[in-house]
Amino acid sequence: MRVFAALTATVLGAMAPAHAEGLRYNVSGFAQYTVGKVLSGDEKPYSLTGQWQCPCAIANWEYVGVYEKSQGAQADQESLIGLQGTVHLSDSLSATAQVLARPNNFNFRPTLDWAYASWSVSDQWTLQAGRKRIPLYYYSDFLYIGTAYPWVRPPQDVYGWPIYAYDGVNAAYAGQWGGFTVDANVWAGGFTHKNAPYNTKIYYGSPTNERWKNIRGAYLTLTKDEWNGRVMLMQHRANTWTPAQGTQPETVWVPNLKTTIVALSLNYDGANWLLRSELNRLKQSVSKAQYDYYLVGVGYRWGDWTTMLTQSNYKTLDLGTAFGNPPLGIEARRSQSLAVRYDLNKNWALKAQYDVSKDRTTQYDFFGDHKMLSLSAQTSF
Amino acid sequence: MNRFERGCRGMVWALSASAALAGPTGALAQSGELVAVVAANSKAPPKLSADELGAIFMGTAKSFPNGERAVPIDQKSGTRPYASFYQLSSGKTEAQIKAYWARILFTGKGQPPQDGGDSAAVKKLVAANPNMVGYIEPALVDGSVRVITELK
Q: Which segments within chain A are labelled E, that is strand?
């Protein structure tokens, strides 16, 4: 905790744009201190890896943040601090790096989540190369910028894959078409995550790698007045494998399968009322694995307060051999949440969220049902 | 100290830090009258609607409606003119504007407008740069700048 406080205090003093020898640079950042407590839930063992004692609640799939009732209130599962530095080499060229540290990731070991060079070709087009988060779903590329959304965390029934970044190139378009504001992006690249926590901790137990090859994706977002719609399509080759260890040979779980992800989103941002919705599908060739997931939320904002009532859901479908042959069952979950946000000032949002989540998995004993309370202080600076 | 107490004490720390950082912005909710100005010799159109002005300051329009490049200049955030401007031009609070730019900044999609300082500094900057547009109190308007939008 002292590290977290010291990092925050240090960077707050140096946020203003600065100049050095003709170069202009900015330092900015974001952080959240989140305390979660599982109030009740299914008392059963976590069967896949034995990693947790349930009642428990998964609150982050990428880095794997899981709250356990037996641990009481926990502040180390989602709290994080991120720093971003941008050097402007000229009016059109810049280089940006973003580093994140979190207590549940090897005790604040920093990770380089973003590192890219950016070239503004024109007022509308920007080319970028390097590492970026994949803009898969509506909140994917700003999943940890808490001040930018109403919940403590976007619904985790939707936001859960082992790969969240890519090394590659992208072309971004921003402009106006008639009365619409357009934000579009096409990207290509790949990413390998060795010992991905998602694989290792949740599903396989032994250190297990994930590689997404030949990623090609595009999204288009149209905004008009209070309405905003987004469509995204991405394809890649998915690989999941546990390397050979001692006498154990390598085990390939997902053998370079063509994967297609489609994501739709429709949002309304009125003076008082808010609507958030997403409808997404992942399909894999050969295994015919299919995941369907959605979220729908209605919110009301008055002054500095926002409240949000949300339902989210995901489920696998028995279409082929991905879940056994014949299928042994499905993995599925449905959750409801009530979130309240208070904007303390322009930099800080205080949030509280109550989740009720029902595990509908039949293939194995998974995280089970839970009720959870979360409190979070979130900032960007 | 058990885990629950640690968690609660941590939250108190976070809340205390938040309060300390709150600064004077809480008193800035009230809106005042402002005008958007460009240089007297600017090629910007004679008038801009509040929506057109808002699009330039939100980064969704990079040019004036007549095609001339537009460079928005903000006043310092946390000041009354800053809060009033966004309340009048887009109906958003300072926290909502900050949240909007946080998303754009941390996803590599752009940067918020340049901070030009107070009204006097913004007027001086805008008067010397034909592509810039800023906002100031009406009483400060003189021959060096031209009013393109009145915000009430």
A: 18-20, 23-41, 56-60, 65-68, 80-88, 93-101, 111-120, 125-133, 165-177, 180-193, 209-224, 227-242, 251-269, 273-284, 290-302, 305-317, 332-343, 348-359, 370-380
Q: Measured between alpha carbons, how far is A342 from A365 in angstroms, rounded to an integer?
A: 37
Instruction: State how far the Cα of B56 lies from the Cα of A72, in Å rounded to an integer.
Output: 49
Across the A:B interface, residue pairs with CB atoms under 8 Å apart total: 132
| Tokens representing residue B92 in the block | 């958003």
Q: Taking Cα atoms as reference points, which of B91, B96, B140, B143 lies closest to residue B117?
A: B140
| CB contact at 8 A, A355 and A337 | yes
pLDDT score at A240: 96
| Sign of the torsion angle spanned by Cα atoms B132, B135, B136, B140 | positive
Tens of pLDDT, residue by residue over B87-108, are 998 888 999 999 999 999 999 9
pTM for the whole thing?
0.86
Distance, CA of B28 to CA of B61 (rounded, Å): 27
* Distance, CA of A280 to chain centre: 14
pLDDT at B44 over 90: yes
Low-confidence ranges of chain A (pLDDT < 50): 1-16
- pLDDT tens-digit readout, A70-89: 999 999 999 999 999 999 99
Taking the C-alpha atoms of residue B44 and residue A325, their distance in angstroms, rounded to an integer, is 68
Contacts of B12 in chain A (CB under 8 A): none
The closest of A1, A143, A129 to A59, measured between CA atoms, is A143
Interface contact flag, B11 A33, Cβ < 8 Å: yes
Give the separation between CA A158 and CA B133, rounded to whole angstroms.
Answer: 42
Query: Residue A140: what residue type?
Result: S
User: Quick one: CATH architecture of A2-380?
Assistant: Beta Barrel (2.40)
Residue-level pLDDT at A281 = 96
Q: Average pLDDT, stretch B121-127?
A: 97
Asked whether the predicted pLDDT for residue B15 surpasses 90, the reply is no
Note the pLDDT of residue A22: 64
Res A48: pLDDT: 87
Give A221's Cβ-side CA count (13 Å radius). 19
Q: Quick one: how many helices (H) and strands (E) in chain B?
A: 5, 5
Residue of chain B whose Cα is closest to the Cα of A8: B17
Q: Find the radius of gyration of the CA atoms of chain A.
A: 21
Please give the angle made by the CA atoms of A363, A365 and A369, to the nearest 5 degrees.
115
Predicted pLDDT at B5: 39
| ipTM for this model | 0.86
Domain map (residue ranges) of chain A: 2-380
* Distance of alpha carbon B133 from alpha carbon B42, whole angstroms: 9
Q: Hey, what are A55's tokens? A: 């009642």
To probe the interface with A, which of B80, B106, B111 has the most A CB atoms within 10 Å?
B106
What per-residue confidence (pLDDT) applies to A18?
54
CA–CA dist A34, A349 (Å, integer): 12
Cross-chain Cβ contact B21/A348 below 8 Å = yes
